[in-house]
Amino acid sequence: MKYPVYNQKGEEVKNTLLPKEIFDVKENPDLIYQVVVSQMANRRRISAHTKDRSEVRGGGRKPWQQKGTGRARAGSIRSPIWKGGGVTFGPRKEKKFKKIIPKKIKRKALFMVLAAKAKENLLIISDKLKIEKPKTKEIFKILKKFPCQGKNCLVALPSIDKNLILAARNLPKIKIIEARNLNCLDLLSFKYLLMPKETIKIIKETFRK
After folding, report:
1. How many domains is the chain partitioned into structurally?
2. What is the pTM of this model?
3. Which residues does the annotated region (Disordered) include (predicted)?
4. Which of 91, 117, 120, 175 fits a disulfide with 48 by CB distance 3.0 to 4.6 angstroms?
5. CATH no. for residue 158?
6. pLDDT digit string (tens) for 66-79?
7. Cβ distance 183 to 39 under 8 Å?
């Protein structure tokens, strides 16, 4: 599968061959859905937490005697029916949302999304992606010349490049990720995928095991 390669000036300089086993996979929306739902569930963080009667401070002694007062029986001032008492059936941190998906399925879904990006011309391959200084305006000038100009774009690098990471972190519609960490959720969260040519080799080595 031939695909155009651009330089940093946004000019098409040559073509490259995309691996058929990665970028020419038949799409299965149900499988992609399962993987995305599992990734969203695994990233979920629970912040809401209420205390039950065993966790609320105080209430160690019986507020009044069992009989003879004319009032209802009470064993603790931290009962759920008392003000300041514990909460019944409230949200708890112990709840688990984790979903386990086999690696083969996650890998196959990733290839499907990559193939869809290539078929819809939402994949942009550059011969290189380098800047000398970690300046936001430098990376902005480069991205401005690609088809992803003004659109949200995921940049997949073959390895960590501190200059690019520091330069792009102030751009709201740009996210930089290492090729070995590519996943369906991030790919589907961004319209375009931009990557240097070397990234294809890393994807092949990492996921085609």
Report:
1. 1
2. 0.81
3. 47-72
4. 91
5. 3.40.1370.10
6. 999 999 999 999 99
7. yes
Nearest one of 22, 16, 23 to 196, comparing CA atoms = 16
For residue 157, how many other CB atoms are within 10 A of its CB? Answer: 21
CA atoms within a 13 Å half-sphere pointing along the CA-CB vector of 45 = 1
Q: Please name which of 200, 145, 201, 189 lies closest in space to residue 6, comparing C-alpha atoms.
A: 145
For all residues of the chain together, what is the average pLDDT?
91
Domain that residue 169 falls in = 2-20+113-207
- pLDDT (tens digit, 9 = 90+) per residue, 158-186? 999 899 999 999 898 899 999 999 999 99
Contacts 24+ apart (CB under 8 A), 19-24: 19/200, 19/204, 19/208, 21/111, 21/208, 22/111, 22/114, 22/115, 22/203, 22/204, 22/207, 22/208, 23/111, 23/114, 23/115, 23/118, 24/115
Instruction: Please indicate, yes or no, if residue 142 is contained in any of the structural domains.
Output: yes
Nearest to 32 by CA among 138, 184, 162, 158: 184
